[in-house]
């Protein structure tokens, strides 16, 4: 029972981290694109 809960929490944590990284990458891409638009 505990192992199943631990495995579930671990996989959820990994998914959350991946989602966070995706959001960060998208935000960086938008920011850099905006910066280029201002520069040129």
Order of helices and strands: H
Secondary structural class: mainly alpha
The global form is: rod-shaped
What is the residue-averaged pLDDT?
Answer: 82
> Main sheet?
none
What is the first-to-last residue Cα distance? 59 Å
Catalogue the unreliable spans. none
Task: Provide a compact summary of the structure.
This protein has 40 residues and is mainly α.
Structure description:
It is a single chain. With 40 residues, the chain is mostly helical. It is 95% helix and 0% strand. The chain contains 1 helix and no strands. The protein has one helix at 2-39. The chain is rod-shaped and about 55 Å long. The N and C termini lie far apart (59 Å).
Question: How would you describe this structure in keywords?
Answer:
single chain, 40 residues, mainly alpha, 95% helix
What's the topology here?
Layout lengths: L1 H38 L1
């Amino acid at each position: 029972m505990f192992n199943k809960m631990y495995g579930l929490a671990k996989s959820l944590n990994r998914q959350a981290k991946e989602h966070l990284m995706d959001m960060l990458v998208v935000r960086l891409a938008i920011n850099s694109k905006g910066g280029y638009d201002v520069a040129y």
